[in-house]
Amino acid sequence: MKKNAFRNRFNLAPVPERKSIVTWVTTFRQTASATKRRTGVPRPVRSPENIEAVRVSILRSPRCSPRKHASALGLSDRSVRRILHDDLHFHPYKMAIVQELSERGFNSQINACEFLLDVVPEDAIVFFSDCTFKGLYCSFFYRLDQKRLRAVRTQLRRLGSITFLIHRTIN
Asked: How do strand 125-129 and strand 136-142 relate by DSSP bridges?
């Protein structure tokens, strides 16, 4: 009877065995879920006692790594991390070290930018890069006579923290 009802309801040709359907229905009525029940003894790693022990340990020495807490508590590293994340809602982070701009460097960059605004024509093609170098690299292309080019290079050498690459375009 159940096989026919299943076939009519879901319109499938290969119908599961009666025993499978009965198991599904029984499991759903008992647990409100159709997934398989876990068998065996539940693992006591995330017990309230262990969660409290991890919480106390972290609060006592917050700078200590989870691996060292795990070793001290006699738990696995993964279990401590799972307790921290899932039960205590702690999340890992890494300190980000950013470069600090000194007053001298800031003034140098302001001077260089103001100089660029004066020197570089509006139709120039300008490239900036600060990726992996110690200072800011600037490269620009424009038409400039030789005398003016020498004056620009002299002024650029005085700016120091920013390196400029000047490319003269030829008509």
From this structure: antiparallel
Minimal CA–CA distance to 166: which of 154, 149, 151? 149
* Angle, CA 84 vertex, CA 79 and CA 89 arms, to 5°: 145
Residues 163 and 107 in one domain: yes
Q: Tell me which residue range forms the domain holding 50.
A: 44-87
Q: How many domains does the chain have?
A: 3
Burial class of residue 48, CB neighbours in 10 A (0-12, 13-18, 19+) = exposed
Domain match, 10 and 59 both: no
Can you give the pTM of this predicted structure? Answer: 0.36
What's 117's domain CATH number?
3.30.70
Tell me if 82 is assigned to some domain.
yes
pLDDT in tens, 10-41: 877 777 788 887 888 888 888 888 777 677 77
First to last CA, the chain: 92
